[in-house]
Structure formats: C-alpha cells, structure tokens
Amino acid sequence: MKSTLGAGRPGFLWAAPAAVFFGLFAIVPLLMVAVLSFASWDGLSDPEFAGLDNWKKLLDDPVMIKSLWLSVLLTLLGVVVQTPLSILLGVWAAGHQRNRAVLSAIYFVPMLLSIAAVSVLWRAVLDPNFGVPAQATWLFGDGNLFGMQSSAIGVLVFVSTWQFTPLHTLIYQGAARAVPQVLYQAAQIDGAGTVRQFFHITLPQLRNSIITSMILMVVGGLTTFDTVLILTQGGPGSDTTISAYYMYQKAFKSFDYGAASAIALLLVLVSTLISLIVVRLSGYDKMRSTMEGL
Amino acid sequence: MKQRARFPRTAVVGGAALAMVLSLSACGGGSDAADGGDTIRVLVYGDATNKVEKELVATFNKTSKVKVVLDTIPGADYQAKLQTIISSKQAPDVFFNWGGGSIKPFVDAGLLLPLDPFIAKEPDLKAKFLPSVFNSAVIDGTSYGVPMRGTQPVLLFNNGKVLKKAGVKPPKTWDDLLAAVKALKADGVTPIALGGGDRWPTLMWFEYLYDRVAGPELFQKALDGDQDAWGSPDSRKALGKIRELVDAGAFGTNYDSVKFTDQGSPTLLATGKAAFELMGSWEYSTQQDAHPEFAETDLGYSAFPSVEGGKGDPANIVGNTNNFYSVLKKTKHPQAVAEFLKLMYSDQFVKAQLGIGNLPTTTNTEGFLDTAASPDFAKFQYDLVKAAPTFQLSWDQAYPQSAATTMHQSLQQFFNGSMDEDAFVAAMQALPTS
C-alpha cells in the first residue's frame, strides 16, 4: 500500500460504501420527514405547506404527551428488569462447566425467534379464556390482562424481557469471560468469597458492557413497535399507545402523514437526547479502560 | 395564513416510507408492462371470494376485446396499500372498497369517475340493486360504486343449547335482553361474548343502540358535522342503555382481553361459555369453519331487539352494506369498465356468490336463495335487508379514516368505564367529519 494514504489510516474511500448507504437510507429520509412534518399530506393530493400546524396540534394532543411518557416508562421498566437478570445470567453462563454451556444454548432460543412470532405466541398463551390465566385464576383473577393499563404494560415488559434478555446475557457472558483470572486469584488469596468477588471485581469490570447494554435497551425500548402492534394495539383505549405506535396509527390508519412525520422527528430528537444523557452520565464517551493497572 | 408549496412527490413518498421503516410496496407483480395496452386492471381485497371474481373476469374476457386483469392484495393492509398506489402510475382502473368514508378522500381528491353517466345509459346499473345498499357508495348525491360482493348485516347470534338450559328465548325487546342477562348469569354463563380487544365488535353495540333509541338521523347529523348531535338527550339516553347493559354484567369483566379475530369470542359462543354474540353475518361462516357441529345444530340468530320508546324503526339494521367497485377517472376504457360492472347483477354472479356463502344485494338474488350454501340463513338475511328502512354503514367506515382510531379508543374507554359520558361526548364531537 502506498504511504500517501497516511499513517496506516484508511482514507475516506474505505468509509464510502457505508457512508453512502447510511446517507441514502437514514439521513435523506430523515430530512424528508423533517420537511414533511411542516406539511399537510394524506398521500393522495400534493403535500401542502402547513407551517407549524402539525407541531402545534401535537403538543396540544393529550395522547401524544401520554405516548411519550409511556415510551419512557416502558424503556425504564425494560432496563430495570432486564439488566440485573441478564448480568446474573451472563456471569453464571460465563463459567465453562458443561451444563452451563447446554443451558445457555437453551436460554438463547427466544432470541432466534422473530418478535412477531413471539408476540403472537404470548397473546395466545395469555388468552383469558383458553390460555394460562383460565387455569390459574388464583394468580390472574378474571384474566383481563389486556383490558387494564397496568397489566397490559406488564405483559409488554414481560414479553420484551423474555425475548431480549438472551441478547444482553450474551453481552455479559462475553464480558465476564474477558475479566482477567488473576483478579479472582488475588481476591481468593485475600479471602474474598464469591459474593464479594462478584460485587468488587466482576461488576466493576463489566462497567463498559453495562453501559453498552443499557444504550441498546434504551434505543430498543424507545423504538418498540411490533410487540405493541400484536399484543395490545395500543389498548385498552390509548393506554399502551407508545410514540412509535402512535406514529404508525397517524400514518397508516389515519393517513395523516404530516402529523406522523412530526411524531417521527420528535421521537428522533427525544431518543438522541436520552442517548446523550446516558453517555454523559456514564462517562462512556471517555471510554475509561477497566484494565488500568493490570 | 396558509401558503402552498410543492414538494418533489416521489422523493417524499420514498423518504417517508423508508423513515417509518414499513414496507409500502404495493401489490406484487410489475404492473408497468401492461400499462397502455388493451387491459383494465381490477384490484380486489384478497380472500376466499376471489374465486368468484376470477370466474367473472374469465366470463368477461371471453367476449371482450379489452381484457380484465385481476390483482389481489391479501390481508388487512388493503386500505393502506390502496391509499399508496391510487395516485401513482400503478393505480388500477377499478378497485374494491367499502363505500362511504373509505372512498370519500378519493372523491375529494378528484380521483374517481362519477357513475351517473353509466347509469343514465343503463339504468339497471342502479335499479338492479337494493337501494339501502347502493346508497352507501353515493357521495354528495353522486354514485361512485357498484355493489360487488355480499351484504353483511350485524345480527344477534346465540347458542340455542345454552338458551334452552337457562330458559331464555332470543330477545325481542331491550327488557327481554336484560332479563335474559340476569337468567344467564344465574346459570353461570357469560351472557354475551364480546371481542373487545378488537374494538370494532364493541362499536356494533353503539351502532344498534343509537339507532334504536335515537333513529338513524342522529348519526347522520353528527356525520354531517352537527356538533350538538352527540350531546343531545337522545345520545345520552343511548349511552345510558349501554352503561346499563355493561353494569349488569352482560359481557363479564374480561371482554377487553378477548378478540374475535383470533377466534376468542366465537369459541366462547360455540363452547357454551357464552350465550349471545352480536356480530356481522360472517359469524355464520366462521362457526362453520371452526365449529361445524355447533353451526349445524345450536347456532341461532335473531335481529337486534327493539327499545321501548325509541325513535328508531326496529327493522333498521347496521353493518357492512356491501363491498363496491369504484372506477378511477383516468381509466382509458370507461366503456369496457361499464360492461364489466354490468356483470355484478348477472345470474352467474348471484349464483357464484351464494355458492360460497355470500349474500348478494341484487334484486334477482331472491330467485336463487334456494341454491345458497345455507338457504335458511340466506333467506333470513335477505328478508331483513330488503325490509330495512335504513341500513346504517358501520360508523368507522362512514366517518373519514382519520377518525377511526380515536373513535375506537373512545368507544372502548366509555364501554369499560374508564371514560365518563361527558368525556365520550366531547371525544366524539372532536372527530373530523370530512
């Protein structure tokens, strides 16, 4: 390779395919949506410039405000439930025992199924008359899981957890295996038990992985769509209508593409803001190594 | 102040679609090759009835120089996909729709061909159909559609065995219904199965009670933009009846977790866990498919009960009046299209529809009812539809599509008690009407 390319750093050409792809399929549509959010368009006649109409309506729309809170709530619940679960599973699965390898493989199965299939499956399992709730009335009462906000949200969180915990478990498994054994050996000599080792060695060593996994959860949570579409359709009423689903309703049920674009853009802004906050708070941007001093 | 600005359409279309990460790809198969040739493209909702449509197309193509090509869009996304292609180059010449609000936006956008000139030339194009059905596709006094499938009135279905055990008869009046609810509850069954999770089954109770209590005029007023209609005493009286029924425990408590579309509520009826279900006439074929024995022996049906002191005629019905063929203005072969539409009241059409369990709404249907898949059921429906002074098109199809989601949400919330009467009235008043 010629030295004109710089000190071993690839030139722009190397990034071009990915950059063009990203530009064409992410940046350009984003700009279009931004433009469309200032227009009134039903998909039939030509879009008409509507100024700030869509935005004004959106900010006055109680369902929109509610949908943002619901998105945040679902995301938070997802993080709170999945993180401890996947850390424990991941660290446990990091052991090289054979039974752990076999069980980890089984735990990974939900990840291989499509979200739609999983949602349809759980909808059937949780049917009030012909599913599990009908057999376990001591736990589910009348089985009206999809008819009340609290239980409908519970179902959504549960199904997402069931589906996505394996992914995060995988992240933690890899990270836990990368923790240098010398740390545990030293701790053992100092007389630290398993629990102390976990809290003083494993957890701190997983710091960067926790942040990675949490960002994935936040992004995934804010853009959740399939599970809501299949499990609750935003119901009862608008009680599980999260922003992404509300955008879908506006665009493909009401054919109000202007309003839908405004929601889409708002969602992009909110997600970016939340990602920035997570990155700042966690110090992820500084990428402090967990290997210092080793 | 509103300024007008034009955006590059195709780019915007592509952009919006991509950004929302949903495939908008229209019906499969390249339709570009056939453009401009001597063909008419007919777009229909893809399901079991396509069998009849294919037969008719074959009949038409035998004699016509201009050939019909049938395209189908399967599944529930028909309306969304139609909306996307109808103003594009791939737009069909003739397309399936539900009349009313489902074509209103296309009429407003000037895309549809008024059929009145066709009718002037060939009066049978209107005279051969039951008027209460034909009127669903008349918009602002102009005809835009010809009925092309079967009618689907909403009926009160029942499980005869369960009724017998509880000593209950299909209700003729509202008080009968309330008494039946009480008796059935005492007998330990859910009086009425309801797929509240789908929301549109809940709507049917509103449609009938508003009709019986206030007459069809109230809804028409509301649809025409009269803000006072929803807040009127009659409207509140109808809502009171709904509250009364729900609070009496007629639907049990978990109806919002039950769906019709996943066979939930039909199975409740068929297995005797519930006694009644208010549903479109397709309940019959649904039960025949899923529970053939029950459909054969115990599945009963009756018209919706009357309400004492109500203004609506007890013979009124609600539901899907029919499906319609509408024609795009830009079609190159209006004459051939008119010829094709004439097949929609032919004997062949009627026999084929009856044969697969649909009930056509042409005046010559009566003569063929004995050939129907289920003659008794077909006759019952036909008499009902023919005698009905008004046939109210489902509210969510009569209103513009932009209203449907909010309408469904509000109905569900009032029904399950999470929204009070005043809030419901306000929500309905806020719906877009045109």
Q: What do these coordinates show?
A:
Chain A is mainly α and 294 residues long. Chain A has one domain (49-283): MetI-like fold (Orthogonal Bundle). Chain A is 70% helix and 1% strand. Chain A contains 15 helices and two strands. Chain A has helices spanning 12-36, 53-60, 62-93, 98-107, 109-112, 115-125, 132-135, 137-140, 149-177, 181-189, 194-205, 207-222, 226-231, 243-253, 257-282; strands spanning 39-40, 48-49. Chain A has a two-stranded antiparallel ribbon with strand order 1-2. In chain A, strand 1 and strand 2 form a beta hairpin. The radius of gyration of chain A is 23 Å and the shape is globular. The mean pLDDT of chain A is 88. Chain B is of the alpha/beta class and 434 residues long. Chain B folds into two domains: 35-150 and 321-393, D-Maltodextrin-Binding Protein, domain 2 (3-Layer(aba) Sandwich), CATH 3.40.190.10; 152-319 and 399-429, Periplasmic binding protein-like II (D-Maltodextrin-Binding Protein, domain 2), CATH 3.40.190.10. Chain B contains 22 helices and 13 strands. In chain B, the strands form three sheets. In chain B, strands 7, 8, 9, 10, 11 and 13 form a six-stranded mixed beta sheet that branches. In chain B, strand 4 (138-139) and strand 5 form a beta hairpin. In chain B, helix 10 crosses helix 13 (233-247) and helix 21 (401-415) runs antiparallel to helix 22 (421-429). Chain B is globular and about 65 Å long. Classes of the chains: A mainly alpha (294), B alpha/beta (434). Chains A and B meet through helix 1, strand 2, helix 14 and helix 15 of A and helix 1, helix 3, helix 14 and helix 21 of B. Chain A: Keywords: Cell membrane, Membrane, Transmembrane, Transmembrane helix, Transport. Chain A: It is a multi-pass membrane protein. Chain A: InterPro entries: ABC_transporter_permease, MetI-like, MetI-like_sf. Chain A: Pfam families: BPD_transp_1. Chain A: It is found in: Cell membrane. Chain B: This is Xylobiose transport system substrate-binding protein.
